[in-house]
Design goal:
The protein is of the alpha+beta class and 139 residues long. Helices cover 35% and strands 35% of the residues. It is built from 3 helices and 7 strands; from the N terminus they run ααβββββββα. Strands 4-3-2-1-7-6-5 form a 7-stranded antiparallel sheet. Strand 1 and strand 2 form a beta hairpin. The termini are far apart. The model has no long low-confidence stretch (mean pLDDT 90).
Length: 139
Amino acid sequence: MKPSASQLTIIVMLLFCIIFPLIWGSVLLILSRYSGWSSLVNIYSATSTPDELMECSGIIGGVNYTSTLRYSVEDEGLYLKPTFFFVIGHQPLFIPWHAIDNYSNGRFLLMYKSKFNVNGTPFYLSHDIKSELQNQINQ
C-alpha cells in the first residue's frame, strides 16, 4: 500500500523537524570553531549577564555575525553574546579591556567602527565600543 499525499507530507515535516536542527547545530559548532569563539570561551567565559544589551553586527575571526550579536560595554570589559538562534557553540564572552589589543576605530569594511584583536582573533564590530565606554564614564 502506497502512502497517501497527506502521510508523505507528515513524514517530510517530521524529517525536517529532526534533520534541520541537527544541520543548524552542526553549522553553528563549525562557525564557533572557525571564528575562534570556542577558544575564547575557554578563557573569557562570562559569569553573569548585564542588565542592558544592545545589538550589533560583527566579523569575528573571519565569520560574519550580521545583526546577530548582543553586547554591553562595562567598566571592566566587553560582554558579547549571540542572539537566541545562534547560541549553540557560542557561550557568552566577557573580555576584559586589558585583553583587547590593537584597538582602532573608524570605518572598516564599510560599516564596522571598531577593530581589535583578542588573543590573536580579529574582531570588527559595528559600534565604537571605546567611545561608548568614554560616554559612560562622562555621565
